[in-house]
Amino acid sequence: MSKLFYVGAPPLHALLDEATCAALRKAGRQERHAAGTVLYERGDQNGAMVVIEEGEVEVGNFDLSGQFLPTSRMGPGHCFGEGAMLSGLPRTFSARAVTAVAVAYIDESEYRGVVAEFPAIAEAVTRIMAQRFQLLLEFVDDLRTQPFNVQVAKALLTVSGIHEVESAIAVGPEELAVMLGASSVAVTQALGRLERERLVLRTPDGVLVQDRNMLAEWIRRRTSRNPVLAPEATAPAPGFAARRAMPRAG
Predict the structure, then answer these.
(1) Interval 103-111 mean pLDDT
(2) Is 80 exposed, middle or buried (0-12, 13-18, 19+ CB in 10 A)?
(3) CB 166 within 8 A of CB 4
(4) Closest CA to 70 of 83, 82, 53, 57
(5) Rounded Cα distance, 88 and 85, in Å
(6) Which of 22, 47, 53, 122 could cross-link to 85 by cystine, CB 3.0-4.6 Å?
(7) Residue of 224, 231, 146, 130 lying closest to 190 (CA atoms)
(8) 226-230 own/partner pairs: CB under 8 Å, 24+ apart
(9) Virtual CA dihedral for 158, 139, 92, 63, nearest 10 degrees?
């Protein structure tokens, strides 16, 4: 999975056991798509949640030239589109397959049916939505209040700390620029400042975060606040361990 466009919330299998995840996938419509296929477009009214079984999917929007600008990239176990499913509003993003993918489309009636039997699914989806919303608030506040080098530092801190991602991040200024909505020149300058402070090292393979604790402390000194980061998905979230596999009785 892309080490830059992390969705900011864990995959479902970090919150639910395999039997419950399988029940959710089975409730929906299974489809396979080739790389490059647009799964849905901004403005579509088909408000189904999508669960990725195999491959990678990018979510974003097309600009006036037709170039796709990704906001996040997800892999197996991740879900997306739940906001449109639950709100009834049109899609706010487009989604396309980065690789060949296998996905399950779950509409609202199918979702409510499986949740009636496995209520932990609703808890997991709610937690994922809440985490994404909280991280979005942090991101928006950073855009409004923080210097750009702090924004770049926080982006690097986040993606260097997620599960299955090593500290060397295979990302260039152009990708960071897309993520932060800035120019590659501004990103290059910010990376240069962080490198001069020995917080990161630019290598042919990507940006190396020298010490995550040191980078976090650098951010705290410049913002007087602790950074809110995406959770690691190496273990079930607190509160889910005892009940994630339990269907509703009766």
Answers:
(1) 95
(2) buried
(3) no
(4) 57
(5) 6
(6) 47
(7) 146
(8) 227/138, 227/154, 227/157, 228/134, 228/135, 228/138, 229/157, 229/158, 229/161, 230/6, 230/8, 230/9, 230/131, 230/135, 230/158, 230/161, 230/162
(9) -90
Q: Of the candidates 124, 96, 111, 109, which has an alpha carbon nearest to the alpha carbon of residue 25? A: 111
Q: Which of 82, 63, 84, 78 is nearest to 6 (CA)?
A: 78
Could you tell me if 159 and 152 are in contact, meaning their C-beta atoms sit under 8 angstroms apart?
no
Count how many Cα atoms sit within 13 Å of the Cα of residue 174 in the half-sphere of its side chain: 1
pLDDT digits (tens, 9 = 90+) for 203-215: 887 788 888 889 9
| The amino acid at 238 | P
Digit-coded pLDDT (tens) for 161-184: 653 444 556 566 777 787 788 888
- Residue 139 and residue 85 in contact, taking contact as beta carbons nearer than 8 Å: no
Contacts with 193 (C-beta within 8 Å, 6 or more apart), sequence order: 149
- Identify the bridge partners of residue 54 per DSSP, sorted by sequence position: 102
What are the Cα distances from residue 101, in Å, to 32, 95, 192, 248?
6, 12, 37, 32
Are the C-beta atoms of residues 200 and 156 closer than 8 Å to each other? yes
Which structure tokens are listed for 23? 């029940």
Rounded CA gap, 212 and 231, in Å?
Answer: 15
